[in-house]
Design brief:
2 helices; 88 residues; mainly alpha
């Protein structure tokens, strides 16, 4: 069989269609990384909501917004890597 992602030949059956074990491992790691990223975003959003209800300083809100932007960029990169057909 030929892997859809990296075009290498493999003979081991994986649970995903036409994906070699190496690409499957990479996709599994990316999926776990996305779950962690989603949890971070959720925590930051909760923190932001609490800060909006009881503001302490402008710096805190700026820091939360900055960290949210970073996490959103990371998530977009992870999603692009998962959906790409290129080899890792």
């Amino acid at each position: 069989m030929i892997c859809e992602r990296c075009a290498s030949e493999f003979s081991v059956h994986t649970d995903r269609k036409l994906i070699c074990p190496d690409c499957k491992a990479q996709l599994d790691l990316l999926s776990e990384e996305k779950k962690v990223n989603d949890r971070r975003i959720s925590k930051l959003l909760k923190h932001k909501e609490a800060e909006l209800k009881n503001p302490t300083s402008d710096e805190t809100m700026k820091r939360i917004d900055h960290n949210l932007q970073i996490e959103y960029k990371k998530r977009d990169g992870i999603i692009k890597a998962i959906n790409s057909n290129s080899k890792f």
